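Archive record:
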Amino acid sequence: MNIKNFVNILGIFSYALSRLGCVALFAMMGLTVVDVVGRYVFNSPILGAFELTSFLVSIMIYSFLGYAQSQKAHVTVDILVNAFPQKVQSIVKLFNYIVGLVIMILFSWKGLEKAIEAMETGDSPMNLPIPIHPFVFFLAFGCAIVCIEFIRDILRTTYKLKNKEKSL
């Protein structure tokens, strides 16, 4: 398998996870509508709707992070960097990807530790008997997918630097 196929295969994870984020967003909208109608029309809100919404928000955010990185949809400030030559711009991008990778590895690691701790202690929200550890595991998993995207970007940028600005 060559490097180009490897990079493309890694991109499948973030795309698939982004579809899960779409489902979480749709479920959150449906839950909110039903809760508001139940609260104001029938005077009977959904018990634990706030907690369920917060779980769905965490699924949504950590589902979209990797895909946003793959599409370069994060906010960047590149006023100064655009004035540099192309090779220097690539080196700056490579540095940023490495720093981002290190930070997301730390997030994933600490998220995994927190998930294991929550699983051992049996943490759950006050209004619902749902354990929180699966959602914290998902946080760690979402950060790991972002790590994969940073690795893809590092491979692409390194390939571009070594092969005289050809893209991967």
Remarks:
- The CA atoms of residues 91 and 157 lie 8 Å apart.
